[in-house]
Protein: Phytanoyl-CoA dioxygenase PhyH
Amino acid sequence: MPRLLSDAQVAAYARDGFVFPIDVLTPDEVRSYRGELQAWEAAQGKPIDFPEKSKSYLLFNWADQLVHHPKVLDVVEDVIGPDILVYHSTLFLKEAHTPAACARCRAATPGAPSRTTTGLSR
Structure:
């Protein structure tokens, strides 16, 4: 029995490799995490980029809180099981009012089975 997702959402993930939308953060949590990122960017005078975009959970408390957030972990557990390890992460950000695009990425070869998640797309 899934912890947060419905049986239909788990089946959709297994079939399609992604599921959305999933509300795991409260509006206050979103504001707080986003505010911390924006405060860091303001102090740097530029948007976050590499190397800080890679493994941000090792650098920033807010990112560490996100990867350990109980609801985030519940969703991940629903789709890959309880043996969860954050090995790597990269922030995919699209700054407002820019022509940049952030294409949906895949953590594995399309169509191949995967036990990893990327923004809950596999």
Summary: Residues 1-122 form one domain. Residues 77 and 84 are 7 Å apart (CA to CA). The two ends are 21 Å apart (CA to CA). The chain is about 40% helix and 0% strand.
